[in-house]
Each structure stands twice: as structure tokens, then as C-alpha cells.
Amino acid sequence: MSIGKLGNNDALAILREGTLGRLGCIAADWPYVVPVNYYFDGENIYTHTLPGKKLDALRANPRVCLQVDEIKDPYNWRSVIAYGRFEEISDEETEVNVLTKLHSRLPHMTPVESRLIKGMTRTIVFRIKVKEVTGMAEGW
Amino acid sequence: MSIGKLGNNDALAILREGTLGRLGCIAADWPYVVPVNYYFDGENIYTHTLPGKKLDALRANPRVCLQVDEIKDPYNWRSVIAYGRFEEISDEETEVNVLTKLHSRLPHMTPVESRLIKGMTRTIVFRIKVKEVTGMAEGW
Fold first, then answer.
1. 3-class DSSP state for residue A28?
2. Which label site among A85, A106, B29, B134 has the fewest CB atoms less than 10 Å from its CB?
3. Which chain B residues are within 8 Å of A22, Cβ to Cβ?
4. Residue A106: Cβ within 10 Å count
5. Does B83 contact chain A (CB < 8 Å)?
6. Which among B25, B73, B121 is the nearest to A31, CB-wise?
7. Closest Cβ opposite residue A106 in set B26, B34, B74
8. Per the CB < 8 Å rule, is B32 touching A1?
9. What torsion, rounded to 10 degrees, do the Cα atoms A118, A119, A120, A126 define?
10. Helix (H) or strand (E) run with residue A18 in it
11. How confident is the model over A108-121, as pLDDT tens digits?
12. A34:B121 CB<8 A
């Protein structure tokens, strides 16, 4: 049972390399967790959402975490949590840049398509200004 | 963007079939998320933890959720959240039964080893009495 803390550089590297995380927030005094695609530029986590329970919760309580893990098996895993505050992005140029970067890491989508998606849907883009990152690992 | 709600039976089936989830709780007024191995018997989710931030948070605020997903790619996924209350299990027979069931779904461990682990470590076993399950899906 060799569970231990990850160093800050290892934790930041996992956050930077990941594309899929689980976003945790507080909705009406209950924890709420959903999977999200994201990218981390070293200071901020960028992601997007449709209107709904998650967005309502984040607007009401901006305290948010993103959990990202690499799990080989139950005895060999690494997991990090980044904490920060939800900040909605409302200028269209930044929105399209964020969606383009997000989609560039996903298959089957081009920057032009990102712009079309922004135009066609009610996608909301936001950042999490990261204030703390911690991590744990077992085995590995 | 065909995102929609999952029916209750589909959501329960995902919870029953899963072995790995992300546990969300509230720690000092911040969301906190960690990966856990679990099983669901139709009424309760069973899992375990070592002493630390997660256990302290759950004892202070028993409102907890477990998020479980099946993600083929960013456009084809299903995700469920089960909400309930943390209930610590303290009688040794139930503890060993839960650890044996948890480990029977993992590789490389026998019931005898589960009993040894309970004896050797400070593992705490707990259940989440599920009061609500919701789910969303895209594509699939």
C-alpha cells in the first residue's frame, strides 16, 4: 500500500498532459461531478458546457475543482486535483480560440467547425483560474 | 449534439456494472473529487478509504456523490451520478465482507488476502445509502 503525495511538478505535468477530467462543484449544498474535456495552459484550465445544472451551480458558487487521473489498475494510479474559481468567458474571440484549442485535441474537428459550433449552439466557455494543485499516487 | 437524459433503469445499470467511480464530497466548503473502486448492490454503494482528507471531509459533511462514466470518445459517452449519505461501517464482519466483495472484482486478491489487508491497514469501509441517481448521455 505505497500511497504517497505527488510532487508539484508531477501533478502539474499530469494536468497539462490530460484531456479528460472530472469537474467537481457544489450544487445546492451537494457535491456534483461531471466528466469534461479541458486543456491547461499552466495557469488556467479551459473548458466548456451547455446551459444546465452545472452552469447554474458554477454561477451560484464559483468554487470548483478538476480531478484528473491516470489509472493502470487498482494498485497503480496517479490522481491530481486542481482547485480554483469559475470565470465565464464572454468575448467571442476568446471563446472561439478556446473552442479551437479544445477541438484541436479531439478527433474529427477543424477550427472552422469550432467556429460553426460556437455559432450554432449555446455553448458557454469558461476558465478555472488555478490556485492550488495536489496529487496522490500508488505504485506507478 | 444529441445530449439527453438517461432513463432510471439505464442509469442504475451503469452504476451496477461499474467498478471505478469518482467520489465527490465537500471539504471545508470546497468540492473534492477522488477515484474509488466500488460496488453497488441496488441500494447502497460500498467502498473504502484510508484515513486522510476524504475521510475527514465525509465525517464532517456526509453529503456525497459518486460519478461513473463510460466514455468511448468525446461525442459518445454516458455518465451517471448517485447521491446519498456517507455511513461508516464499523463491525468487523461487515467490513471483511465488503472488502472481499470489492476485491473479488479486482485482480490478484483472494478473500484471505482481503482479511489480511483489513488486519494490517487502517482501511475504513463505508456505504453510501443512495437516494437519487441521474444520468446523461451523448451519441451512444
1. coil
2. B29
3. 22, 33, 67
4. 13
5. yes
6. B25
7. B74
8. no
9. 30
10. none
11. 555 555 555 555 66
12. no
Residue B84, C-alpha cell as written in the block: 446519498
Beta bridge partners of B31: B26
* pLDDT at position B112 over 60: no
pTM of this structure: 0.91
Counts for chain B of helices (H) and strands (E), in that order: 4, 8
Chain B CA closest to residue A3: B50
Q: Is B129 helix (H, G, I), strand (E, B) or coil?
A: strand
For residue range B114-140, list pLDDT tens digits in order.
555 555 567 899 999 999 999 999 987
Cα angle value A19/A21/A26 (rounded, 5°) = 150
Phi/psi of residue B87, nearest 5 degrees: -135, 110
Contact A67 B35 (CB under 8 A): yes
Cβ-based burial of A26 (10 A; exposed 0-12, middle 13-18, buried ≥19)? buried
Q: How many CB atoms lie within 10 A of CB B67?
A: 24
Least-confidence region, from A110-114, A118-122, B41-45, B84-88: A110-114
From the list A23, A26, A22, the residue with the least C-alpha distance to A62 is: A26
Among candidate residues A57, A66, A53, the one with its CA nearest the CA of residue A26: A57
ipTM of the complex, rounded to two decimals: 0.90
